[in-house]
Amino acid sequence: MTLGWLILLSFLHIAVCLFSPFVFFMVVFQLREFELSKHHSDICMALGGAYVISTIVSVIIVFNYYLADSQEPYYWWFAMPWALLGAIIVYILKVAKVKFA
């Protein structure tokens, strides 16, 4: 993978990773029958912070592997935030009282 492709992929990764949770929350809040307790909302905020940090850390790790000229498949580090986002969405759907119309 060339440096140009890596920069483009990293930019797209950050853009999509940072905007995809907002799209999910906008859809959920448009249902207007969404309840989340204070305890669970605190956990969601902590998971959201971890998600943002993992997005940035994954890009840093990928560039570190690239600059070290590693032969390992370093681009799999891009999957770390996506796994955490999946965990956040599953957690919210499990603990929230959402009534789908």
How would you describe the overall organization of this protein?
The chain has 101 residues and is mainly alpha-helical. The protein has one domain (3-98). It is 74% helix and 4% strand. It is built from 3 helices and 2 strands, in the order αβααβ. It has a two-stranded antiparallel sheet. α1 packs antiparallel against α2 (38-67) and α2 (38-67) runs antiparallel to α3. The termini are far apart.
Q: Provide the gyration radius in Å.
A: 16 Å
Cross-sheet strand order for the largest sheet: 1-2
Shape annotation:
elongated
Order of helices and strands: HEHHE
Give the count of structural domains.
1
Please report which band the strand proportion falls in: under 5%, 5-15%, 15-25%, 25-35%, 35-45% or over 45%.
under 5%
- Report how far the terminal alpha carbons are from each other: 46 Å
Structural class of the secondary elements? mainly alpha
Helix content: over 70%
Mean pLDDT value: 77
Question: Which terms summarize this structure?
Answer:
101 residues; mainly alpha; two-stranded antiparallel ribbon; 2 strands; elongated
Quick gist of this model?
The protein has helices at residues 3-30, 38-67, 79-95; strands spanning 34-35, 97-98.
